[in-house]
Amino acid sequence: MVLPSAAGTEPRKITINDVAKSAGVSRQTVSRALNDKDEIDVDTKQRVLDAARALGYRPSRFARGLVRQDTMTIGLVIPDLLNPFFTEVAAAALEAARARGWQVVVYDTGDRAEEELGTLQVISSQVDAVIGYFSCPESELEKFTRGMPVVLIGREQRTRFSAITIDGSAGVHAAVAHLVARGHTRIGMLDHHTRAEPSVRHEWFTTAAAAHGIDPGLVVGADQTADGGGEALRAMLTAHPDVTAVFTFNDIIAIGALREARRLGRNVPHELAVIGFDGLQLGALVEPPLTSVALDTRGLGALAIEQVARLLSGAEALAADELVVQAELRLSGSA
After folding, report:
1. CB 92 within 8 A of CB 300
2. 42-55 vs 27-34: helix crossing angle, rounded to 10
3. Which candidate among 120, 142, 182, 224 keeps its CA 20 to 30 Å from the CA of 231?
4. Are 272 and 261 in contact (CB under 8 A)?
5. What does the pLDDT average to over 271-295?
6. Calpha distance 150→261 (Å, rounded)
7. Residue 256 has pLDDT above 80, yes or no
8. 175 neighbors 155 (Cβ within 8 angstroms)
9. What are the residues whose beta carbons fall under 8 Å from the beta carbon of 134, sequence distance 6 or more?
10. Angle at 136 between CA 134 and CA 142, to 5 degrees
11. How deeply is 311 buried, as exposed, middle or buried, from its count of CB atoms within 10 A (0-12, 13-18, 19+)?
């Protein structure tokens, strides 16, 4: 059971007071029962344990650490460690957690739903809070994280959990406007092809393209790898040889497109402009350097840790509008 918050938008953390009320005892009695103290009768202890189990109460190791100096452990769940974007976010979260004396355990789900559920089953008893990227239903998240602070990153659907939202709308509009100003009229997108529905980045692109009178339907799916970006660009140019610019779902796809453009003899940016999304440090190392709709990955990881700290300590959590990371166009040599 997860109690609704006052606003009705996010599950409220179950407290020791909720357990005490359910069991009809004092909070001191709950504490004695959960810590297996002798000065409590067997029936009362069992009633408290049953109430705690029914409510999904999870004693905070953070609170216990105020006395016993326990180590706080955060579970960071990401889709793909081989993708430098997630590596950058993880590194930032690790740095912010280290500054608080916390440990972070990183789990890689391989961008597979079944691995997400398996990971949730494993971490539910091993960590004090969870930060991560999840595509699974909220009911599954609640099932394995009851009573535990959860901060989601990049969740595109509305959620009752704390969630850091990535807003790239203005950045993508700026990217399309830049391409149009450079004379491009046939602009395509290399989107993330494994999603059941078009990505929110695809929505930003089609809206921006339509606003400039550009055909928004020139979209090809791509695997989130450099090879996937190269294959998608080749498919795009085969189907639409008049395309002179592409916007990509992320920088890794864009880097693959740059490599393929060179292989095809297309000069970048004069014959083919390429704009990515994420703003990876890696983008500065390719030739030409990648233009990208860039995120502050360091700020993203630090913000996630800050929200966890607030949820654990009982301080007022950051509001939804404070948990938005804006992406901005960062011009370089590829567009």
Report:
1. yes
2. 90
3. 182
4. yes
5. 96
6. 42
7. yes
8. no
9. 77, 116, 141, 152, 155
10. 90
11. buried
What sign does the dihedral 122-128-131-135 (CA atoms) show? positive
Cβ partners under 8 Å of residue 4, min gap 6: 11, 12
pLDDT digits (tens, 9 = 90+) for 84-131: 999 999 999 999 999 999 999 999 998 888 888 888 888 876 788 899
Rounded CA separation 108/4 (Å):
30
One-letter amino acid for residue 34 of the chain: L
- How far apart are alpha carbons 323 and 18 in whole angstroms? 28
pLDDT band of 213, cuts 50, 70, 90:
very high
Q: Which residues pair with 297 in a beta bridge?
A: none
Model-level pTM? 0.78
Among residues 130, 134, 83, 137, the alpha carbon closest in space to that of 112 is found at 134
| Model confidence band, residue 11 (pLDDT cutoffs 50, 70, 90) | low
